[in-house]
Specification:
It is built from twelve helices and eight strands. It is mostly helical.
Length: 336
């Protein structure tokens, strides 16, 4: 018996399940949309994780018990075993927490039927999961999911959409939200706190996308967070305003980034290369990556900056350095 299975077949079925999830979610009228999409989404991930294990020579089965049939790994156990093979570009902790939240919804969907607009959270989590799947597929197998998808979709929604952060902060009160919704939001808040504390990319946990599929807001960068008040027997959701402390949200100086990332794409990562990348991609103008004190006397960067830099290809780095040199040469000529 082949205990590893065929990674090519597992991978092919995984991509087919992911495409089915996307297709079902994008149908204009489908009353069981969220439930079917997340079932297929988790199935795609389970097959995908087993494909990673199979490709690396690992079994996708639990140890055989006498007089019992063979059992393949659950997605949770497959994730634990496969995460050691993840490339550096895809952080395992926020990716796992994202899937766990989707799994919580799948296992308890019956409790969310009467929750108004709850689907916006499912959409945000699912879209992030698809992005994680896409990045892992490209880095682990050299295949691009987008080549199989026609993104020429028509936004024909009639009801004005709300984003997930709006739903979390203003979508209901303790009195109007069900206990299932309050518990789910508490799990989301706990997962966000864990990812932030670990210094990982919250964009792998949950990211809100606009219709152009451009990442516009991260749950970890929101101005409010949702928690559960455990004092005085309280168990309802609590909106807590959080002022962003730049020492926490943007703790890194340029020198520290270069010290923590001595090489990039197999080459020395110097402050000059950092400056070239920051200039080329306008990082200083993006609050997600850079914070500057009034007057520009102090500039600090978030940990997402490191994640962004690590994702760059050698061609991206070479292009940034070359364009930066041209920019400086042109500037010097103008000064003369």
């Amino acid at each position: 018996m082949n205990y590893r299975g065929s990674y090519r077949r597992l991978l092919g079925n995984s991509k087919a399940a992911m495409m089915a999830a996307i297709e079902i979610y994008n149908k204009p009228t489908f009353s069981y949309r969220d439930e079917c999409a997340v079932i297929l989404l988790l199935n795609a991930w389970e097959l995908f994780l087993k494909a990673i294990l199979s490709k690396n020579g690992k079994s996708v089965f639990y140890p055989k018990k006498r007089r019992q049939p063979y059992r393949t790994l659950s997605w949770q156990d497959a994730f634990t075993k496969a995460s050691k093979f993840f490339p550096a570009q895809v952080s395992s902790l926020p990716t796992q927490r994202n899937l766990e939240l989707i799994g919580t919804y799948r296992d308890n969907a019956v409790h969310f039927y009467n929750a108004p607009d709850f689907g916006i959270l499912v959409h945000a989590l699912a879209q992030t999961s698809i992005k994680n799947f896409r990045d892992l597929l490209e880095n682990a197998f050299g295949q691009r999911l987008e080549t199989e998808i026609n993104w020429q979709l028509m936004p024909i929604g009639i009801k004005p959409p709300i984003d997930a952060v709006t739903y979390i902060t203003a979508g209901g009160t303790t009195a109007t939200r069900s206990s299932a919704v309050r518990q789910f939001l508490a799990e989301l808040a706990s997962a966000t706190e864990e990812v932030v504390a670990a210094g990982e990319d919250t964009g792998r946990l949950m990211t809100i996308f606009n219709v152009k599929l451009e990442s516009v807001k991260k749950i970890g960068d929101a101005d409010v967070v949702v928690g559960v008040d455990g004092s005085a027997g309280g168990d309802g959701p609590l909106v807590v305003t959080r002022m962003q402390d730049p020492n926490k949200s943007h703790p890194l100086r340029r020198k520290e980034i270069c010290q923590n990332l001595p090489t990039l794409c197999g080459r020395p990562f110097t402050t000059y290369v950092f400056d070239a990348i920051a200039w080329k991609h306008e990082l200083k103008g993006k609050p997600q990556y850079c914070w500057q004190a009034d007057g520009g006397v102090l500039t600090k960067y978030s940990r997402d900056t490191v994640t962004f830099i690590k994702r760059l290809s050698p061609a991206d780095v070479d292009s940034a350095v070359a364009d930066y040199k041209k920019h400086h040469a042109s500037f010097r000529r103008r000064k003369r």
